[in-house]
Amino acid sequence: MNSNKISFDFHGVINQRPQLIKSLATLALQHKCAVYIISGGPCDYIKNYLQQQQIPYTKIWCIYDFYEKKDLVEFLPNGEFHIDDELWDKAKGDYCRRNKISLHIDDSTVYGKYFTTPYAHFDARHNIMHLPQQDISLDLDAATIFAQIAEFLP
Questions:
Q1: Whole-prediction pTM
Q2: Residue-wise pLDDT tens digits, 90-111
Q3: How do strand 5-8 and strand 34-39 relate by DSSP bridges?
Q4: Sign, CA torsion 119/123/124/129
Q5: In what helix (H) or strand (E) does residue 145 lie, and over which residues does it extend?
């Protein structure tokens, strides 16, 4: 497999357009690109969803699970959890940098400022993906979208 790695966020990307992401992930794998799922988590929930939707991937990484292993998750009396906002916001960018991800696709504009990895803003509400210097309509077929994404892969 070559060194190209593409990553997709779960909440706001995969769960908003599962069939599109399934097609894009399949095309990426066919083109010898590793497919990472990078999300808030928890991983078990995301793994189950990906299996149910038959979305292929190479690896999953989740912020919640990462910080829980480091004992940096605060569990609140109401059953919710909290992780320091800055730790949470920069986690995906740090992971992509460490793992040499070629392109990350996410719905959040907050995380983008923590990325050195090329970052695509996935805007399902407006049917568009904003890449550096290019916008891609999400109304296009998966092959056309992937061809345009591939231009940003080294």
A1: 0.91
A2: 999 999 999 999 999 999 988 8
A3: parallel
A4: negative
A5: helix 142-150
